[in-house]
Amino acid sequence: MCLVLLALMVFLRIVDPSPIAELRLKAFDFFQELKPRVATQRPVVIVDIDEKSLKALGQWPWPRTRIADLITQLTKMRALVIGFDVVFPEPDRMSPQIAAQSFQGLDDATKEKLQALPDSDQVMADAIRKSRVVLGETGLPTVQAASPGGGQSAGVAMMGGDATPFLYNFPGHLRNIPVLEKAAAGHGLFTIRVERDGIVRRVPMVLVAQGAVLPSLTFEMLRVAAGKSTILIRRDAAGVESVAILGVFNVPTDRNGQVWVHFAPHDPARFVSAVDVLQGKVPADRFAQRLVIVGTSAAGLLDIKTTPVDATMPGVEINAQVLESVLSGSTLSSPNYAIVLELAAGILASVIFIWLTPVLGPLLLLILGAAIVALLIGTSWYLFVEYRMLVDFTFPVWASSIIYLTLIFTNFVSEQAKRRQIRSAFGQYLSPALVEQLAQQPEKLVLGGEQRDMTVMFSDVRGFTTISEIYKSDPQALTSLMNSFLTPLTNAIIDRKGTIDKYMGDAIMAFWNAPLYDPDHEVNACEAAIDMLERLERLNQAREQEAKGNGKSFIPIHVGIGINTGSCVVGNMGSDLRFDYSVLGDSVNLASRLEGQCKNYGLPIIIGSKTAQATKERFAILEIDFIAVKGKKEPEVVYAIMGRDDLAKSGRFQRWRDLNIKMLSCYRSRDWTGALAVIDEGRAVDEESRFATLYNVYAARIRSFQVTPPPDDWQGAYALETK
């Protein structure tokens, strides 16, 4: 019976009905009440549209010219980033042009004077453009008419698979008017979700609004402050794990992309009255190099929330506390595996009671129960205080307490044989595999995929065997070396909106246009490849200096990169027990083959024909061969990327390209003598020997064809013998 009861309680914890969830949340609230966050840093200032400001300057909304003055004043006082915890979805009703049409009794001369005045929204947009402003937006429960976007927007990359099913999804999206949106440095949602009991404990860092994945206002302010273009969402099988700005912030979240806020008490020192800013009554150093949020604490504007440490707190202060927590590294976390720890603790405590009840007397059993409860609460408190981790003690306590009380009762009426039967039944009802399966929400983990046009990249280190032999007596140093070059290469891919599929030793597989659509996936993949080479060059320079300083030999690291575009199947691939979000298809295989040919042609980046056609206007691209790769029947024209558009426009590259076209033309028309002459001409102008290996390949083929000519139906394709 106790095992059935325990199974029921485990099931209830997994289902998580409202009373159980609220009990857990109240326990977390109690921890915050006992030890609220101490705000030792003041990186955020709130410009408050408070009662004082409304009384002095009139009701909200204010004219946009006044908002423009506020932005200009804050910019002069060197505010780092200005975020608006308000939205401007409609044109300013106080704009002169609107007033000219709205006010009755105006003569024509007055109307003409009003219409000649600057548009208020444009005045505000001009002020925004001269600063770093993040405009607030909000999600709505109903779909809105599509509005034109514009301005700076955060790119979103995902690692570990598609995170969108786990994010909170709003059917509608309320934005600012286009003239303001286009002028802003960023846009973020200030939507704050309250829990079922009306308390704010978590704030979303990323959300979905009207089909788009968008950052929160606070996280967008951090991105703009960091000067980055992309945010990264990491997920695991249970959901979102963290959101990050690479190299700057990594914020742990719950499975839905929300950050647990470690609240400090309400502090008036965070606030500066908007009217005081406009009237120049605030010292400039109050805002210098600080994040500024413009919002309201006025009760009439209905932005008052309840937090675990305050019954009433302005919503704008919650956003300020999120920024403080992230910048000071004091956010709370409830990792996705916490439920496994909680279930394990509850099951273990219950098993201890089930095991020892037949052995111990009532008094010893009571002492044991009190000790277990104290240990559970103490461990949860310790994790909160030392690691800011939220691990629930209520489920283990009440689950084991119910088991304890049940055992006390059944101990007087059950025989030893019955207890043995219960032990036997335990293994049938609660296998660890079942607990793990339920904890990880199996309905989300299904096999399958979709067909999509994608760009796939493979990269591999050239001569890694030689490098690894140097470290055969020091595997730790080899691991450190691998991490030192895999990290910048990975960052280059992520920065260009790529998805890391897997690491294979020193090799990386990545793809673009999934899980999120990327209309420029071919260009982004090629940009990432060039970035990888540039970052690797900087790494080699640093390694060479380090080697010289230590008196050691230096072997540079070089990579070959193959890129191909085509139709692929992307999704969860694997077995019912384990799978990964990955990509399959003939285009993937060709990308792998192209990477393998980099060493044969002596060129670091080789791309397929579809990739070349999509990117030929953006990069310096040369056709290098018409090949039939092993395992593929149809020949493929392959190309090399030599650099970006600036190189493509240079006279040096034009000379390379003309010689290359001439050489291939002679080669494919069987003019062996002419082709060799062009090769000699190319060697003469190739001062950096960038094409030495390519010329050697063609020279060797031509000498072979001079001895054994190709068949009459030969079209210039060359069959590769190796992968």
Structure description:
The protein has 25 helices and 27 strands. It is an alpha/beta fold and 723 residues long. The chain folds into 3 domains: 127 residues, no CATH class; 290 residues, no CATH class; 204 residues, Nucleotide cyclase, GGDEF domain (Alpha-Beta Plaits), CATH 3.30.70. The strands form 6 sheets. Strands 19, 20, 21, 22, 23, 24, 25, 26 and 27 form a 9-stranded mixed beta sheet that branches. Helix 1 packs parallel to helix 15 and helix 9 crosses helix 11. About 5% of the residues have low confidence.
Topology, element by element:
Layout: H1 2-15, H2 18-34, E1 44-48, H3 51-57, H4 64-76, E2 81-84, H5 96-102, H6 108-116, H7 120-129, E3 133-140, E4 155-159, E5 169-170, E6 172-174, H8 178-183, E7 186-189, E8 202-204, E9 206-209, E10 212-215, H9 217-226, E11 230-236, E12 239-245, E13 249-252, E14 258-260, E15 271-273, H10 274-278, E16 291-295, E17 304-305, E18 313-314, H11 315-327, H12 338-356, H13 362-387, H14 394-413, H15 416-429, H16 432-439, E19 448-462, H17 464-470, H18 475-495, E20 499-504, E21 507-512, H19 521-550, E22 558-574, E23 579-584, H20 586-601, E24 605-607, H21 609-615, E25 619-628, E26 636-644, H22 645-648, H23 651-668, H24 672-685, H25 692-707, E27 718-719
Parallel strand pairs: 1-15, 1-16, 2-3, 2-16, 3-7, 4-11, 5-9, 22-24, 25-27
Antiparallel strand pairs: 3-6, 8-14, 9-10, 11-12, 12-13, 17-18, 19-21, 19-22, 20-21, 22-23, 24-26, 25-26
Give the helix tally.
25
- Characterize the main sheet: 9 strands, mixed
* Uncertain residue segments: 414-447
Structural class: alpha/beta
The multimeric state of the shown protein is single chain
What is the rounded distance between the termini?
Answer: 63 Å
Query: What general form does the structure show?
Result: globular
What value does the average pLDDT take?
A: 83
Strand content: 15-25%
Rg over alpha carbons? 32 Å
Overall number of domains: 3
Please tally the β strands and state the result. Answer: 27
Helix content: 40-55%
